[in-house]
Amino acid sequence: MSSLPVNRQTALPGFQESDNTAENPGVRAPLVLNMDRFGQVTRQVCQVAESKKPPFAWYAAFTISLGLVGLLGFCVNYLIFTGVGVWGLNNPVMWAFDITNFVFWVGIGHAGTLISAILFLFRQKWRTGINRFAEAMTIFAVICAGLFPGIHVGRVWLAYWLFPIPNQMEMWPQFRSPLLWDVFAVGTYFTVSFVFWFVGMVPDLATLRDRATGRIQQFAYGLFALGWRGSNRHWHRYERAYLLLAALSTPLVLSVHSVVSFDFAVSQVPGWHTTIFPPYFVAGAIFSGFAMVVTLAVPARQLFGLKDLITLRHLDNMNKIILVTGCMVGYAYSMEFFIAWYSGAVYERFAFINRAFGQYWWAYWIMVSCNVITPQLFWFKSIRTSIPIMFALCLVVNIGMWFERFVIIVTSLANDFLPTSWDFFTPTWVDMGTMLGAFGLFGILFLLFCRYLPMIAIAEVKATMPQADPHWSGYAAHDDHGHAGGSAQPSFASPDALRSPGSGPDGGPSAP
Amino acid sequence: MTTLSPIPSPVVQGNQIPRKRLYGIMAEFHDPAALMAAADKVRMAGFRWWDCHTPFPVHGLDQAMGIKRTILPVLVFGAGMTGTMIGFCLQAFTNAASFSIWALVWVTGYPFLISGKPLISLPAFIPVMFELTILFSALSAVGIMFLFNGLPRWNHPLLANKRFLRVTDDRFFIVIESRDPRFFASRTEQFLKDLGAKAVEMVEA
Known about the structure:
The complex is a heterodimer of chains A (512) and B (205).
Chain A: E1 7-10, E2 16-19, H1 38-50, H2 56-82, H3 97-121, H4 127-152, H5 178-211, H6 215-225, H7 232-265, H8 277-303, H9 312-343, H10 346-357, H11 361-373, H12 381-384, H13 387-414, H14 429-452, H15 458-464, H16 490-493, H17 495-499
Antiparallel strand pairs in A: 1-2
Chain B: E1 22-29, H1 32-44, E2 50-53, H2 61-65, H3 72-96, E3 100-103, E4 105-108, H4 122-149, E5 172-177, H5 185-194, E6 199-204
Antiparallel strand pairs in B: 1-5, 1-6, 2-5, 3-4
């Protein structure tokens, strides 16, 4: 099988890249560069977990994250021991940074599931390079997301009221409330994402187990590898289960952000009560999630030497998805405005004019410039394939998507029906500290994952290599290649041999 | 103290006198094509207790080995439907029933009457029913898959074999187990060698 030319290009000194983004419909573009043996892929991925020490930048990032987690711990404890009044919430703005962060983090997670499930169903082989750490990102993002509603309930020790647990009051949750749907949606999402991630990782944990030299590593990887031994009878059921998980995760991921949007859409607050919310939230979630994947992938591949597995083509593809979903988000913004005018509802019209020109006008225009205008630059291939520019643009998108949730939540609440009850939300230092701290929590989990677990799905990447095709005959000629009609041992191919295999003239097995 | 009579040593087949019990014979291949061709022949030879071991799922190997399609999806469908029913019953009982049932403790339903809406508000119950369907299906898909695969199993004769360590890296193996009725140590060994294996090795149990 011939392959497309791979050109070397240098964007910046020290940023040597192999460009495999050339398109030729007749030839599959290479997804694994500079490697033609399975063992090379194994080594490339495993060296990260097997190296004695991670790079210096890892320690630096870990230290910063640890500091932020300390800040988070302090802020959360301060909140629990004092009360939610330490946040800048007021009446009517009863949801602000907490729910903004919740929606932001849940949204981040969606790209991971999109990559692992939807791209799997669409047979997009390039997903194999990025799916593992995108799924890890999903799980850690959902952990960060779960933190916020957990602490925002105020009396944290009563958080079990969220679940249908028999209690002394003989009371049950109200199942007609979207907030309760959220508990089930996010809970299921976390569980299924975690299972999906873990199941995908079992064969790679077995790789690490088989390569481990230290007793601790052998034990730890061995424990979680569950005794995987690559049996094809196992692979058969494993692939079925994996396909089922992908098929189940696809509607799940769409339902989760739809349910999150119901938290708003099912209420009657102007600016929230719109039917466009579910698809709009899902598109926004995928948009922000992919931006986060690129934000994480760029330094990770640089730092851990994974440029041959997470190639420029992977990044280019992700930037295209960011462009598409960015356009969807832009369409949703304009359609919201149009429908607000077209509906003739006074409050709805006011809510949207107020968003763009009211007291939070700056937040609205940050949102529009970051989410609608910025991704349009990805129309240019030179920008899609430039590492520093895509990194910067994706950071901008992340910021924009945080502001989108802030705009939706805060502007609608601050100025609702009755002007006498309007108020202005200003975050306190606890709000800020909790928000930053969540990034620390995410960072720490992600850095530990990069250090100790297989960051790339080794088995899946190998399966996408041309060498994995049983019909590939590259580095050696196989005389015995071919099904049933092999000339080496014709006796086994004939119907007679099938009936009485023991009678083969060449020492075949016979029943004892 | 009574002494038991010594356990008779197992009847040894052929000229091989294994010190330990034999688990099977393992043949190593270096690429999927060779493995596929060999797997085809092992199946043709009529073996039943045998398996291929690969670092990644090899496309078409299921057919070459003659593996029947797993019934996993049917069971997962059943589990998913169970989830749907549990989701409905949970909500109908807790939000619409006024009787008690015994579920480890006595629990009583609570008819939530809100804004005159019907007690069994099916549209409002759908999100939770849906999520529980997915939850039950996904967990059962994974659980049943591992159950059928006999995993987790941390001790296995193959895992103790040095050569077998590379199965998760870049080597492909065919293992014929000694419990196969057609297994006959010396002949099976020769058979595997003739298949073009790069190495053939006895695996102790």
